[in-house]
Amino acid sequence: MKVILLRRHTRRRWIMWEELYREALEEGWKKLQKIPGVITGFHSTIDGLKRVDEALLKKLLAQFPHMKNIPDEPTPVIKTPEDLVSDLLISIREGLAYQRMIENEETFKWTLENIGYDQLRLGGTSANMASLLSPLPINKILVYANPLTKELAELFPERENLFVLTREDGRPVLKSPRKAWKDQGIFAIHWILEYNKGLKVELDGVSFESPRANRFIAAWNPVNCRLKVSEEFKEDIFLIPDRFTHFLVSGFHILLEKYPEGKTCEDFIVPVASFVKEMRERLGLKVHYEFASIGSPVIRGLVAKYIFPVIDSLGLNEIEFATLLNDFGEQELSQELKDTRFPVVKLVDGLLRVMKRTTLKRVQLHTLGHYISITREGNELEERTALLFSAILAATRSLLGRYETLEDLKKGLEVPTITLTGYEGIKKIDDFNLVIVPTKVVQSPKLTVGLGDIISSSGFLLS
């Protein structure tokens, strides 16, 4: 009898969440139409997609016969081809998304020759966010892309609401990226190495397989790894009459700790933080920072020091969150999260600690089974709608590989909601408001790259 009652209770909760999902789709779509404009910066590039299978892994491992085991954590930066292969294997073993920068041209050339790519696609957090938001009913989306080469410009979708800031007859204007390019050539490429759930690896008699579909990113970006915002953009953004209300910031994960000319990452983070603060104050923007996977603890520490105070919202996934906790001196909780596969109760504990240590107004965390937000403001119902709408977008993109219309999103709505745990709902803890929603998971996704970008960006815009 108890089992029957439990099943009925679980089914009632599942029906409730499905109804909330349907309401969120309608409410979110209407609210997006009221947003005047969104800015995304400062990271647009070209992605080289490659599907990783057992044949490719055998080919790569044959070049490193001395590789007998792999470490617990990926390298802070990829210095050699062996570093790249080792980091890829760690990602596969854990089923976790990591991103690391390639430090030198020799490793870049080796990767191009030995891994290559299946196709080129628009990449970079800012470009991805702009592209993935553009099918939605948002009035204007301004994406920062510098240098905007012909090759990069042609990867942007042709949409009436998508623009870059450029000059025409000496005046700042908004134009379609495809009509505003100024150079030709590929100056940067980010390899997206995607693998399926169950991919098997044999290494020195030990075997393991990926617990979930995911990807590893190895990035070569010698032009933008200094994150220098163009002087033209810094001047013109305050001169255009168009109104923008939201600013999505990213790109610090492509920085290096030290540079050949003697400068450090701090020399580039400080001026960007100052510019973000100026934009926030002069334009009245709500600012969200997408954390991404930063390998260097030095860079992560400086981002927390200089960027966190000038933003309103922070977005990250579970592995990035564990790393942030470790940087904040919460090593025990960070390790416990990874050892226990990121249980919700521990994630909530960590979120409370981050909020108490920072001035952030909002943190949004996305994991395989749940999306969680914690805020200082009492807007829990809006947050719940925001998280559910973002889950629909992610499910649709995983299912179809794209979305263009509201009808597409209704197909994502049909993806089953993941098993409920009992933690889902709205809660008040101390002075903070907590929202936890169950997600929709596609078992065999067509695409995984960019999911975090659309989850965080849409969640922020609707919060």
Would you give an account of this structure?
The protein is an alpha/beta fold. The protein folds into 2 domains: 12-45 and 124-184 and 226-462, 3-Layer(aba) Sandwich (UDP-N-acetylmuramoyl-L-alanine:D-glutamate ligase); 48-119 and 187-220, 2-Layer Sandwich (Adenosine kinase, small domain), CATH 3.30.1110. The protein has helices at 2-32, 54-61, 81-94, 105-114, 125-133, 150-153, 231-236, 266-283, 297-306, 318-327, 331-339, 344-357, 380-400, 406-413, 451-462; strands spanning 38-41, 45-51, 98-101, 119-123, 141-143, 162-168, 171-175, 189-195, 200-203, 206-209, 214-220, 246-249, 286-290, 313-317, 362-366, 370-375, 425-429, 432-438. It is globular and about 60 Å long. Residues 1-6 have low confidence and may be disordered.
Structural class: alpha/beta
CATH architecture of the largest domain: 3-Layer(aba) Sandwich
User: Beta fraction of the residues?
Assistant: 15-25%
Shape: globular
According to CATH, the homologous superfamily of the largest domain is Ribokinase
Mean pLDDT level: 93
Give the count of helical stretches.
15
Strand order of the largest sheet: 7-6-5-1-12-13-14-15-16-18-17
Q: Which range best describes the helical content: under 10%, 10-25%, 25-40%, 40-55%, 55-70% or over 70%?
A: 25-40%
The tally of structural domains comes to: 2
Name the poorly predicted regions.
Answer: 1-6
- First-to-last CA distance: 42 Å
Number of strands: 18
